[in-house]
Design a protein that fits this description.
By secondary structure, this protein is mostly helical. Helices cover about 60% and strands about 0% of the residues. The two termini are about 25 Å apart. The relative contact order is 0.22.
Amino acid sequence: MNERGAFWSLMVGLVIGVARMVSDFSFPAPLCMETDTRPFIVSQVHYMYFAAFLFWITGVVALIVSLATPPDEKFQVSKE
């Protein structure tokens, strides 16, 4: 992983995680006998499944960005 891959995976994870957190706070759980009108991601996806999904998404983003960008020159191994 290079610096760009780490940075962009951090940014993607932050945006997705904050979006889920804002959704959780914006749509409180309904009381008993009320219909659940919250979005699917809040009402049906458990937070631990979402955390696992977020883990894999950030790992894939880090891998793709790291492979798509050149490595930093100061960390390259010299062939002397």
